[in-house]
Amino acid sequence: MGVEDTAWTSLKTRICELEALEAVIQLLEWDQQTMMPPGGSAHRGVQLATISALMHDKTSDPQLGEWLGVLSDSDDPHVMAAVRNLGRSHRRAVQIPSRLVADIATASNVGFGAWMAAREANDFGQFEGALERLVSLRRDEVACQGPAAHPYDHLLEQYDPGSTTAQLQPMFARLRPELANFIDTVSSRPRPKSVSGKWAVNDQRCFSHSVISTLGFRLNDGRLDSAAHPFTVGMGRNDVRLTTHLYEDDLLGGLTGTIHEAGHGMYEQGLPADLAGTSIAAAAGMGLHESQSRFWENVIGRSLPFFEWLVPLIKQHFPDDNLSPADWYGHANRVERSLIRIQADEATYNLHIIIRFELELALLSGELSVADLPDAWNAAYRDLLGVSPDSPNDGVLQDVHWSNGLFGYFPSYTIGNLYAASFRYQMQDDVPDMWTNVADGDFGPVLAWLRDKVHRHGHSLDAPDIFRAAVGDRDPVADLMAHLNERQAALNLN
Ligand SMILES: [Zn+2]
Question: How remote is the CA of residue 75 from the centroid of ligand 1, in Å?
Fold first, then answer.
């Protein structure tokens, strides 16, 4: 065996260990949020910290660096993809001192506690010091990682490898005024009626299972459970756990969340089985992951053909429900200026993200101080959305992300919406009958397209390259605006 073969064999063994440890962390976290009794939280903290430390040792190991070096000019594209993927985490693990990693973990813990207390008191002052500490530690972390085209790139890379600030800034800068105009125009028109009713939660469970299995989520290789804040984890393509939150008085609110998570889940179930243990049978990033959840939730799940298929199914599970496909379609496509990101409609949502992205850039570059953040937040909402939070809880304190030291994550949501819009138009070209298929409840052709263009690549390519290979030179900003405009235009015909 040559030096390269030996290094590749050793590297694959290490990747298998890391993938197994990662899956254990996912399973522990799933259990924590679905099954674990409250008393278990201290034990769980120790278990998670132990496994994370083990993963850090195995990732920063100098031997791993040697294998990566030996393989760095391999001719095999799979080997090169593995070297790129693992090289990123190895570089981070080596460059960021353990002391700093531990400080960030502690500050995140403190930050979360301070944020909860600040929310309780509706008082930003109680969170300010903890947030200052987190911003300063993240700036140290960025500084350890050496020069980059933009320091924020180091943060983005953890969630969206391959995306850069230089690429996102102009795209978001174009989207910003177009969305603001769109929301202005739509807000001046009469809004479709919202629907109301009662749908027993137990019946919704059975209904949800029926919807997601028809979409293509394999229930033999996955589960759907309840959680306060829905999320999805994949321990491998044959064990994918979805969670959802159902509401007795809001059938669509629960269903769109369930479909969103099933979109994440179908991506996990479609990762290339034959490449397990190579670091390639993994999602290519959170932006692409969100494109899958948002494609199913918004592009499919808020379309009129979808409701044409869904209404008879609703009738089977809830015989008293007499709402028409047009009623549901109107309700699902209401646009309104809002203060709270997680309650925002499909269009406005992106403005909430752009505001956070711009504030993060300013905080991390030092242009904006944490003390000035609440004013900057309120000013951005006034300028861009024309609404003004009258309390910190409805403003700067609304999201959990920063309290955990999570910076660089928010853009993934809008990247996901942009990718999903271009996937829609490319799919319409490639699968001309797609909307008839959807109205017939035949989602196979839609899923097959996503499997072929997105899922099967795993992380052999970075997300921006998978996107380009799927849609060519389509313009995602133009596609997202076209998608939103079409949705509103169809409303007016009703
Ligand atoms: Zn999601």
Answer: 36
Q: How far is the CA of 232 from the centre of ligand 1 (A)?
A: 8
Cα(264) to ligand 1 centroid in Å equals 7
CB within 8 A of 369, min separation 6: which ones? Answer: none
Q: Tens digits of per-residue pLDDT, 259-315?
A: 999 999 999 999 999 999 999 999 999 999 999 999 999 999 999 999 999 999 999
CATH number of 3-152: 1.20.58
Locate the domains of the chain by residue range: 3-152, 153-494
The catalytic residue positions are 261
195 CA from centroid of ligand 1 (Å): 25
- What pLDDT, in 10s, does the model give residues 407-442? 999 999 999 999 999 999 999 999 999 999 999 999
Equal CATH topology for 3-152 and 153-494? no
| Distance between CA atoms of residues 33 and 334, nearest Å | 31
DSSP annotation string for 391-454: SGGGTTTS-SGGGGT--S-THHHHHHHHHHHHHHHHHHHH-TTHHHHHHTT--HHHHHHHHHHT
Asked if 100 contacts 140 with a C-beta cutoff of 8 angstroms, the reply is: yes
Rounded to the nearest angstrom, the distance between the alpha carbon of 297 and the centre of ligand 1 is: 10
The topology under which CATH files domain 153-494 is Neurolysin; domain 3 (1.10.1370)
